[in-house]
Specification:
Blueprint: H1 25-35, E1 44-49, H2 55-68, E2 72-77, H3 88-94, H4 106-115, H5 126-143, E3 146-151, H6 158-168, E4 176-183, E5 197-199, H7 205-215, H8 221-231, H9 235-240, H10 247-250, H11 264-275, H12 279-291, H13 307-317, E6 321-324, E7 329-332, H14 335-343, H15 347-360, H16 365-375, H17 381-396, H18 400-412, H19 417-435, H20 438-451, H21 459-470, H22 477-490, H23 500-516, H24 519-531, H25 538-548, H26 550-553, H27 558-566, H28 574-581, H29 594-605, H30 610-626, H31 630-646, H32 653-667, H33 670-687, H34 690-707, H35 710-720, H36 732-735, H37 737-746, H38 750-763, H39 770-782, H40 789-797, H41 806-822, H42 826-843, H43 846-858, H44 875-885, H45 890-897, H46 901-915, H47 923-928
Parallel strand pairs: 1-4, 1-5, 2-3, 3-4
Antiparallel strand pairs: 6-7
Helix pairs in contact: 1-2, 4-5, 5-6, 11-14, 12-13, 12-14, 12-15, 15-16, 16-17, 17-18, 18-19, 19-20, 19-21, 20-21, 21-22, 21-23, 22-23, 22-24, 23-24, 23-25, 25-27, 25-28, 28-29, 28-30, 29-30, 30-31, 30-32, 31-32, 32-33, 32-34, 33-34, 34-35, 35-37, 37-38, 37-39, 39-40, 39-41, 40-41, 41-42, 41-43, ...
C-alpha cells in the first residue's frame, strides 16, 4: 500500500479507489482515536464495508496519520492470484524489516527466512513462525510503535492469516496495532470473531454531492441527482457512474435510461455474482429490475410456478435481493446490483421482459406505455401515441422529468416528421418551464426544427426559444421580446384567455418586459392583454398594473391584487404561486405570500421546478432585506446564485448580485457594493436589461449615502429617476424617492428636492403601500420650511405598520433627530437619535449607526447600550405599553386615555427602543422582563 496522498494513490484491485477523502473526517477521527495516535498500544480493529465504499482510502489515510504521529506502518494487501501462496501476505508485510532478521535468535531467524523464501527451513512450523513474527514486531516496536495495516483480508493466504490472527490477539500493551479491511459478508481465513469490527457506512448526501461536484462539475443537476440516487453514497459508484454516460447524457442533453449503466470497473465488481446465477433466477431478477416497483406481482403467472421460490432464493442466498413474502415485496440490496442484472441481460431478453411487463401492467396505462416503448425498436405510431398520452398525464401530476422522457421516446417512435417535431417541442417546453434544464430544451428544440421546420413558429417553440436565448449568455431582451410578440400575434390560439400555452407565453413576455424596463416593450404587452377574450387571468392583469408602471397604475391594481391573493393556491402549483407573487413586489405585500414562497423554495430544494424556485428566492431575498432580516437575505442570495449557476439559469443572477450589493452598502462595504453594481451594469447594458441597471443604480445610491458622498448619491439617484417626476416603468423610481430628496437637500439643491416631493405626492404612491407612504412623508419632512418639519416627521412615524421596515424607519428617525438638534430641541432629538442608533446597531448598518452616535454626542450624550435594569418608563408610557400589549389599537388606546392616535404612536415608538424591541408583538415579553416598580 502506498502512503502517498489520497489523490495520488492508485486504485486497488477491489475498486476501493482512494480519490480523496471526502466525508470521512468522523471515521478517521474515531479510528485514529481507537488506535491511539503514535501509541497503538496493542489495539486491533477490523474495517468492513461494501465494495467501493472507500475502505482502502480510509486505511491509507489512517496509515498516514499514524505515521505522521510517530508510528511505523507495515502494510500488506490480499491479492486473489496469491491467495494460495503460503505466507505471500506476510512477505509483503515484513519485507521492510528483513534487515533485522540477522539479529534474531537462530530459531526465529530460520523460521522467518524459510517462511518468506529467504532460505532456512522450507516448511517451518506455523506456531514457530507466529512466535517469530511476534518477536520481530516487538523488537521493532521497542523503538517506536508499529501499526500493521492489511487490505483485502479475504484474499490473504491462509498461512499469513493464521499468523496475523495470532498477532492481533496478543495481550495489550505491546505497542503493536492491527488494522485490516474486508468486504462485508465475505469469508476469510482470518478468524474475525472476538475482534472489534467497524462497518464503514456510505457517504452522506452532502459528502456524496461534494465528491461528484468536485470530479464532474459539468454534470447537469438532474443527472447528478440520478447518480446520487443510484450510487447511494458509494464513493466508487459516485465516481464511476458518470464515466459510463455520454457527453450529451452528462449535460442532460440526451435521455438517461431508467437504470444508469455501469462502468467497466463497476461491472467487474457487481456482474460476476449475477452471471453465476441459474438462468431462471436471472430471468426473474430481470423482470424485477426493469419493473422497479419491488412488487412480486410482476412475476405474473411465474410467481405461482413451483420453481419461482427456488429461483428467488438463489438471488437471496447470494445477498443480491431481500424478499418480504408477507407483503409480496422484493428489494435489491443496492441499486448497483439492479443495474448489474440489466447489464448482464441481452437486448432480446430485455425486450421480452418489457413486453411481459406491459401485459402485466395493462390496467396502468402509463406503465404499460413505458414498457411498450422500451420493447419497441422501430417507429410505431400506436406506441408513440400511448407514450404521448402518458407523458401529458405525468406533466399534469407534476412529474415533468418523467413527462419529458415519455414525450422524447414518443418522438423517437413517431413515423411522421410532424408528429416527431410536435412531441419534441412539447418536451422542450416542459424542460424549459418545468424542469429548468435549458440546455436540454435547446437540444430538443433543435431536433424539432430538423424534423419539421414549418412547425417551429408555434407559441411553445417561441416561449421555449425565448427562455433559452435569455440564458444563453449572449441573448438580449429585444430579441426575446420580438420572438414572443410575433408568436403571440401570429398564433392560432384566438386570444383565448383559457389557453394555458398562451397564458404561459404571456407570463414569459411579462418577465421579459419587466427586465427590459422600457415603455415600448410594455406597450406591446398591453396590446396583447387587451385582445384576450373573456377576463384575463388575475395574475396577468394585476401584475400589469402593480409592477409594470406602478407609479401610475399601481393603486388602480390593488383591488385586483386583493382578489388574486384571496384565491392564491395553497402550494400545489408553483407556477401559479410565483406568477401571483410578482404582483406583490412593488406594493410591498410580500409578507402575504412569504409562506407560499417558502413552499416553492422547499419544493425546489427537493428537485422541483427550477425557474419558480429561483423567482421565489428573489422575492424572499427582497422581503428579508426590506424587513431587516439581512443575514437571511444574504444566505438566500448566495443560494440563488448557486442555483442559477448549477442549472445554467444565469439570466436572473443579476438580481441576487443586487441584493448582495444592497447588503454590502448598508454594512459599510462600499467598494464591494460598487463592484457588484458595476458587474450588474456591465452585464445588463449590452443585453438591454434596464431593470438590472436601475437596481445597480439603487445600490450605488445607498452606498454613496452611507459613505456620506452626497454628490455621488445625487448623481446616481437622478440616473434611476430624474428629479421632478417618477420615471416611466421603473419601479425603483418610487423606492429611491427619499434617497434623491436627501441627496438633493444635502448638496444644496433645495428647489430640486421640493419639485421631487411635489411629484411623488401628486403621484399618489403613498396610497400604494405603507412603506411608500413612510418614504413620501419622510421625503416631505426633509425639505423646507423647517417649522413644518416636525409635523411632517410625526406624520411619517404615524404611518401604520412602519415598524415592519426598520431600516427606512431608522433613517427617518435619524433625519428627525438631526433636525431637532439643529432646532435646539435637545431632549426630543436624543429620543429620536437613540432610537435610530439602536435600530441601526441591531441591523448592523454600521455607517448609519456611527452617524447616529455622532449626532448623539453632539447633543452632549454618548451612546450606551441599554439594559433592562436601566429602563425607566413614565407612568403614561407604562400604561400605553400595557394597553398596546393587550392588543388595543392606537385609536382605542387614545380613546381610553383621551389622547390622539398620533400621540399614542409617538409614545410607543419612543418606548420601543427603551425596551430593546422593534414591534408591538414583543411588548408583552419586554414588559414582563422589567423589574418590579418600573
Amino acid at each position: 500500500m502506498s502512503l502517498r496522498s489520497p489523490a495520488e494513490r492508485p486504485a486497488d484491485a477491489n475498486g476501493d479507489a482512494p480519490y480523496g477523502l471526502v466525508g470521512r473526517a468522523q471515521q478517521l477521527q474515531q479510528i485514529t482515536a481507537l488506535l491511539g495516535p503514535g501509541k497503538v498500544d496493542g489495539r486491533a480493529l477490523l474495517l468492513s464495508g461494501e465494495p467501493g465504499v472507500g475502505k482502502s482510502a480510509l486505511l491509507g489515510e489512517v496509515a498516514e496519520v499514524m505515521a505522521a504521529t510517530g508510528a511505523r506502518v507495515l502494510s500488506a494487501a490480499g491479492v486473489r492470484s496469491e491467495a494460495e501462496l503460503a505466507y505471500a501476505g506476510l512477505h509483503q508485510l515484513l519485507f521492510p524489516l528483513s534487515d533485522r532478521f540477522e539479529h534474531l535468535p537462530d530459531p526465529y531467524r530460520e523460521a522467518l527466512r524459510g517462511a518468506l523464501g529467504f532460505g532456512g527451513d522450507p516448511v517451518p512450523d506455523r506456531t514457530l513462525v507466529a512466535d517469530s513474527v511476534l518477536f520481530l514486531l516487538r523488537r521493532a516496536a521497542a523503538g517506536r510503535p508499529v501499526l500493521i495495516v492489511v487490505d483485502d483480508l479475504a484474499w490473504l493466504d491462509r498461512a499469513s492469516s493464521t499468523v496475523l490472527d495470532f498477532v492481533a490477539r496478543r495481550p495489550a500493551g505491546d505497542r503493536i496495532g492491527f488494522l485490516a479491511a474486508a468486504r462485508t459478508g465475505t469469508g476469510t481465513f482470518f478468524e474475525r470473531a472476538g475482534l472489534p469490527e467497524y462497518e464503514l457506512p456510505p457517504l452522506d448526501h452532502r459528502a456524496a454531492t461534494e465528491l461528484v461536484g468536485a470530479h464532474f462539475p459539468e454534470l447537469a443537476v438532474r443527472v447528478r441527482d440520478r447518480v446520487l440516487a443510484q450510487a447511494q453514497g458509494n464513493p466508487l459508484a459516485l465516481l464511476e457512474l458518470p464515466t459510463a454516460l455520454s457527453g450529451p447524457q452528462r449535460g442532460a442533453l440526451a435521455d438517461l435510461p431508467a437504470v444508469l449503466p455501469l462502468s467497466p470497473r463497476l461491472r467487474t465488481l457487481y456482474t460476476p455474482q449475477v452471471s453465476s446465477l441459474p438462468a431462471a433466477s436471472r430471468r426473474l431478477l430481470l423482470l424485477l429490475a426493469l419493473d422497479g416497483t419491488g412488487d412480486l406481482g410482476v412475476l405474473g403467472t411465474d410467481s405461482a410456478d413451483s420453481g419461482t421460490p427456488k429461483a428467488l432464493a438463489a438471488g437471496e442466498a447470494d445477498r443480491l435481493i431481500t424478499v418480504d413474502a408477507t407483503n409480496c415485496r422484493v428489494a435489491f440490496r443496492h441499486p448497483l446490483i439492479r443495474a448489474a442484472v440489466i447489464e448482464t441481460s441481452t437486448l432480446t431478453e430485455r425486450c421480452r421482459a418489457h413486453r411481459s411487463l406491459a401485459e402485466i401492467r395493462a390496467e396502468e396505462p402509463e406503465r404499460r406505455a413505458w414498457h411498450l416503448g422500451e420493447a419497441t425498436l422501430v417507429p410505431d405510431e400506436r406506441v408513440a401515441a400511448l407514450l404521448e398520452t402518458a407523458g401529458r398525464g405525468l406533466a399534469r401530476r407534476g412529474d415533468a422529468a418523467g413527462a419529458v422522457t415519455a414525450l422524447t421516446r414518443a418522438a423517437e417512435l413517431s413515423p411522421r416528421p410532424e408528429d416527431r417535431a410536435r412531441r419534441l417541442t412539447e418536451a422542450a417546453y416542459l424542460e424549459a418551464h418545468a424542469t429548468g434544464e435549458l440546455r436540454a430544451a435547446a437540444e430538443l428544440l433543435g431536433g424539432a426544427r430538423k424534423a419539421a421546420p414549418d412547425l417551429t413558429g408555434s407559441l411553445r417553440t417561441a416561449t421555449t426559444a425565448a427562455l433559452v436565448l435569455l440564458n444563453s449568455g449572449n441573448g438580449d431582451v429585444e430579441t426575446a421580446h420580438r420572438l414572443l410578440v410575433d408568436a403571440v400575434e401570429t398564433g392560432t390560439h384566438g386570444y383565448d384567455a383559457g389557453d394555458d400555452t398562451l397564458v404561459e407565453a404571456m407570463h414569459t413576455l411579462f418577465l421579459v418586459c419587466w427586465c427590459g424596463g422600457r415603455a415600448d416593450l410594455w406597450d406591446r404587452f398591453e396590446t396583447v392583454l387587451r385582445r384576450l377574450k373573456s377576463t384575463p387571468p388575475l395574475s396577468l392583469s394585476a401584475c400589469s398594473k402593480t409592477l409594470a408602471d406602478p407609479a401610475r397604475t399601481g393603486v388602480a391594481g390593488l383591488r385586483e391584487l386583493d382578489s388574486l391573493l384571496a384565491g392564491l393556491p395553497d402550494g400545489e402549483d408553483p407556477g401559479r404561486i410565483v406568477h401571483a407573487t410578482m404582483a406583490t413586489v412593488a406594493p410591498d405585500r410580500l409578507a402575504q405570500v412569504r409562506d407560499v414562497s417558502w413552499h416553492v423554495v422547499r419544493q425546489g430544494r427537493r428537485g422541483g421546478p427550477v425557474r419558480q424556485y429561483i423567482r421565489a428566492l428573489m422575492n424572499l431575498c427582497l422581503y428579508d432585506f426590506l424587513t431587516g432580516r439581512w443575514e437571511a437575505a444574504g444566505t438566500l442570495a448566495d443560494e440563488g446564485l448557486r442555483i442559477c449557476e448549477e442549472h445554467r439559469h444565469r439570466f436572473l443572477s443579476w438580481y441576487f448580485h443586487y441584493i448582495q450589493a444592497l447588503l454590502a452598502a448598508v454594512h459599510g462595504r462600499f467598494e464591494e457594493s460598487r463592484a457588484l453594481a458595476d458587474r450588474i451594469t456591465q452585464w445588463a447594458v449590452p443585453r438591454g436589461v434596464l431593470a438590472a441597471v436601475a437596481c445597480a443604480g439603487h445600490a450605488r445610491v445607498l452606498a454613496s449615502l452611507g459613505e456620506g458622498d452626497y454628490e455621488s448619491a445625487h448623481h446616481h439617484a437622478v440616473a434611476v429617476s430624474p428629479a421632478g417626476r417618477l420615471a416611466s416603468h421603473v419601479p425603483h423610481a418610487m423606492w429611491a424617492c427619499m434617497d434623491l430628496v436627501e441627496a438633493a437637500v444635502r448638496t444644496g439643491r433645495t428647489a430640486e428636492a421640493e419639485v421631487h416631493v411635489r411629484a411623488v405626492r401628486e403621484s399618489g404612491i403613498a396610497s400604494f403601500s405603507p412603506r411608500l407612504a413612510l418614504l413620501v412623508e419622510g421625503s416631505a419632512a426633509l425639505v423646507p420650511p423647517d417649522d413644518q418639519a416636525p409635523e411632517r416627521f410625526e406624520q411619517a412615524l404615524a404611518v401604520p405598520g412602519v415598524e415592519d421596515w426598520p431600516f427606512d424607519l431608522a433613517r427617518i428617525r435619524l433625519a428627525y433627530g438631526e433636525h431637532l438638534r439643529r432646532m435646539r430641541s435637545i431632549t426630543e432629538a436624543r429620543a429620536q437619535l437613540d432610537a435610530a442608533a439602536q435600530a441601526f446597531e441591531r441591523l448592523g448598518a454600521r455607517p448609519w449607526a456611527d452617524r447616529a452616535a455622532g449626532e448623539l454626542r453632539a447633543t452632549g450624550r454618548s451612546r450606551t447600550r441599554a439594559t433592562r435594569d436601566s429602563v425607566t418608563l413614565t407612568a403614561q408610557e407604562l400604561e400605553i405599553a400595557h394597553l398596546a400589549a393587550s392588543g388595543l389599537t392606537n385609536k382605542q388606546i387614545g380613546e381610553r386615555l383621551h389622547l390622539s392616535p398620533r400621540t399614542v404612536g409617538s409614545h410607543l415608538y419612543q418606548l420601543f427602543p427603551k425596551l430593546g424591541i422593534a414591534s408591538r408583538a414583543a411588548l408583552r415579553d419586554a414588559l414582563a422582563a422589567l423589574p418590579q416598580g418600573r
